[in-house]
Specification:
Blueprint (H helix, E strand, L loop, with lengths): L1 H18 L3 E6 L7 E4 L2 H6 L23 H14 L3 E8 L5 E12 L5 E10 L1 H51 L5 H35 L4
Antiparallel strand pairs: 1-2, 1-5, 3-4, 4-5
């Protein structure tokens, strides 16, 4: 009687705590379908599928609502956790009743008896779709910034090429001015100004290129 009351209270506590999570607790068998032995109501809130449809695979298996692209990764994480007697942490997608994907983070572990035999798997799954959406937006932003910085670097490279041509013209002009002696004095001044402009502009272009390369490195997580 006391044990029954304890189990009832414990179950109520679990349900109460689970109701405050944007997720669900579970206990299941270590089989291909992850046959659910216990599951909290949060699964219906997240996916639209009632708990009783999963228990003992009454209507569907839990594995059946995993995104096919993620199933093998989940299996591998569980196998590794069971073999090493450690918990697994993994992000993967469930396909909701309406067909839309739902990202969850699962933290689970195997439960073993005194003889070190696996009894079942248990853990908690939390909805992380909002975080994933933010990550996707950030990745898109980084990609766009990186692409723009690449365009700027290419433009600067073009400018540097033009400046090399300008410096060469300035050098030729000075040579021609020297040949013309005093008649080329004014031309020599212009040539010197062309060279100074080219040198100054090149320094600025090099600085822009260096800054953009630094930005690209930071965007790619190079520091």
């Amino acid at each position: 009687m006391v044990a029954g009351m304890y189990d009832s209270v414990q179950g109520n506590v679990i349900e109460s705590v689970a109701s405050r999570l944007n997720g669900f607790f579970y206990r299941c068998q270590n089989d291909a379908g992850y046959t659910m032995l216990f599951m909290t109501e949060g699964i219906e809130t997240l996916t639209g599928y009632p708990v009783n449809e999963f228990l003992n695979n009454r209507v569907r298996t839990f594995a059946s609502i995993m995104d096919p692209q993620d199933g093998s990764a989940v299996d591998a994480a569980v196998v590794a956790g069971v073999e090493k007697r450690t918990k697994w942490e993994i992000d993967y997608r469930l396909i909701k009743r309406d067909g839309h994907p739902l990202w969850i983070h699962e933290s689970g572990a195997g439960v073993f008896d005194d003889n070190n035999q696996l009894l079942f798997l248990e853990g908690v799954c939390i909805d992380i779709s909002p975080q994933k959406k933010q990550e996707e937006k950030l990745e898109l932003l980084v990609s766009n910034i990186s692409g723009t910085s690449n365009d700027i670097v290419e433009a600067v490279q073009h400018i540097l090429g033009e400046l090399r041509t300008l410096k060469l013209l300035a050098l030729n002009a000075r040579i021609e001015a020297a040949r013309a002696a005093e008649h080329g004095a004014g031309f020599a001044v212009v040539a010197q100004e062309m060279k100074s402009l080219a040198d100054t502009t090149r320094e600025e272009a090099d600085r822009i290129r260096s800054l953009m390369e630094t930005l690209q490195t930071l965007l790619k997580g190079g520091v």
